[in-house]
Specification:
single chain; 122 residues; alpha+beta; four-stranded antiparallel β-sheet; 5 helices; 25% strand; elongated; MpsC; DUF2294 family protein
């Protein structure tokens, strides 16, 4: 692989923004991707709608409902996300973890890879 770590991180951020817009119907305000050992950690800011913030503020059930629904949407597109990572990094995703903060409207995605991508790029 002859691309730098920074270029691949930028490509991942751009591809995930495009995926959000085409799959979820809207994109986050900002996306930052970091390659760390055998993981890609993606932070997406500004993903909740004003209505979702309102529901989250009302009660705990509303908050849990928004988390559950948003996580289900992302998980339903997981195969496509794995293909994006494979295409950009030549690495297979062996596990995926995600959570959303209903307080800050920030989502974190962690792609666990089959190999140490950071070492391959060094």
């Amino acid at each position: 692989m002859d691309k730098s770590k920074g270029i691949i991180e930028a490509e991942i951020s751009k591809a995930l923004t495009q995926w959000e817009k085409s799959y979820l119907g809207r994109g986050s305000l900002s996306v930052k991707s970091d390659i760390l050992r055998d993981m890609i950690i993606v932070t997406l800011r500004g993903i909740l709608t004003p209505a979702e913030y309102t529901v989250c503020e009302k009660d705990k059930e509303g908050l849990l409902s928004v988390k559950r629904n948003r996580n289900s949407l992302v998980e339903s597109g997981l195969e496509e996300l794995k293909k994006i990572i494979l295409t950009l990094t030549d690495q297979e995703v062996i596990s995926f973890h995600t959570d959303i903060s209903t307080h800050t409207g920030e989502r974190v995605m962690v792609f666990k890879l089959s190999n140490n991508l950071q070492n391959k790029l060094s």
